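Course assignment 3, question 2. Fill in each field.
Student: A.L.
Task: Predict the tertiary structure for the chain below.
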Amino acid sequence: MSTIRTIEETENLETFYLIWLGDSMKNEVRQQLRTIINYLLIFEDEQQCFQYIYSLSKNDRVILLVKRKLSQNFIPQIIHLQQIASIYIYSNDKNTNEQGKKNMNKVKGIIVRRNELIQRIQADYNQRQFHNLDEILSINFFHSEKTDEKLLSTNLNADFIYSQMLIDCLICMQSSSNDKNELITLCKQQYKNNPNELSIVEEFEKDYLCERSLWWYTRHSFLYRLMNKAIRVYNINLLLLFRFFIRDIRQQVIKNKSLSPFHVYRAQLMVKEELELLTKFSVEFISINSFLLATSNYEQTQNFLSSLTSSDNMEKVIFDITANPQRDDIKPFSNVTPFSYFQHKEEILFMIGSIFRLVRIDRVSDDIWNIKLILCSNNDHPLQSFIQEKKTELDIVDTDPLSFGFILEHMGKLNDAEKYYCYILNHLPKDHENITRCYHALGEVTQKKGDYNLSLKWYNKSLENDMQTMKIDDPNIATSYNSIAVVYSKKGDYTLALESYKKALEIWKKKFDENHPDVAMCYNNIGIIYQEEKKYSDALEYYHKAWNIRQQYFPVEHSSLGESHACIGNVHYHLGRYDMALEHYRLSLEIFEKSLLPHHPDIAMLLRNVGLVYQAKSEFQLALFYMKKAATIYRHLFSATHPDIIQIENIICHISSKL
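Answer field:
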């Protein structure tokens, strides 16, 4: 007999899972439970059940139903997991008492009757949904640079800025006329075994109007649950299908924006690590990357939080928000009560990506924290200039459909970027001007993932298209030659690489002056070829040519300058000048930590190279330290079969054998 039976065939697009551990379940009971939480899994084997729950994201939430005979051994194993929201013990023994709940705050009850079990789950779930409690917010923090925790501050600040850039692009994207139909098709598949939710999907298909977007959002139906999770986990395909809905909500909020100040509250469970960041470090600003609902009823908010039992890994907080619409250039917010599905529940809706200034954090009771926030306008904070500087550096234009992918790529989210480019490519007319740009973007992201043959395929398609539509000396053709050369270099085909680089350099020199950054990039890439061919003096000459141009053109913390330092350091390493190599690597790392995200592949490569220097100096403890730091990033980015993963694991084994 199978030890796991699931009635699910698709990915769960919602946050909640309903998991039954025990014997088989009647179809009638399944249907009743699915009206509460759509995604139902049935396990008979405890170990498989544990492994499945453990494999879920910490931001997913599990309602666990477990037979009494299995509960005594199983619950202590899983009750500490952040994924576990509630546990219900089901017993056939009419003499069962509540003793089994002792010291288990997530256990909601030991229940004998099936109908009572379903009613309890429904009531508890409805209450939490009513207060938006289990909507795991996507939050980013901006820290003061005054903190001694400079690296932590820098990394979190980069996350903050990139998230704002993604939201700006998402809002500015044009939606496809077919987005709604594709979303409905997807939802019908997701809820095909759930008649109740399916009827709401069909109602949406028939009756949705843009001027009723707030009514649909506040209904807490599939739209609310799916969109909020898609925003939190960067579900690219689903986010793109929600473009029309996000746009409609935004337009309705703008049309009905509040004209008077508000003081509102939001009950929230926050991961302890997030609260520690707020209390320990000098956080100045918080951005919330989804729409945010809050209420004016403080007493109701506090009473509800007080009624909840504490958790080992979650903290109860109240966001205490002051918002004044009379400030210049403030993101609009709206009292959505007149447009809400729940018109007896007064709520304010804040725009996706709203930025709040953190005023203070107070403990209002033994287990509740009050986080005082003020909604910012763009004039209240320096962040807008940081965001604009990063957009300029990356050539990000909010209305350019490819910019969303460029940002994901720069964040190191290579799989998400590839999915996005493929989506755009599949939805463009065959003669659209962005087809060639999509080919090139796919070539770049697959090259970064180490799939060099696929990368060459995409780059060559881009070059072929350009050759048909452009003059032979167009700079875009030079860009394709340069990119193709990079892949040949990665494959070890240095002759072909140098040939393509020289074609690119000839075009760029003809079209631009000698001090153009594209010329510098090509010089740097030619230096890499000479380095691989062990022509170190030639390599150093070209690296310095690139450096001289870049230092004139870019600000001191630009990632291109970090790349130049890293490359110059590489040559010194190969020439045995280890201290000079380490000095350039140090300068490179300082720049990368300020300009790139912490899991960027260029940082991993740099840490690996530092490890190689220490290995050459026979300082094996330091070598192992840096190699392990690099390996951590690589594992975050790539699968176990990626060539960089395989290589660094072998290096770590070799160094470990020396200790």
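Instructor remarks: The longest helix spans residues 150-172. The first strand starts at residue 4 and ends at 6.
Grade: pending
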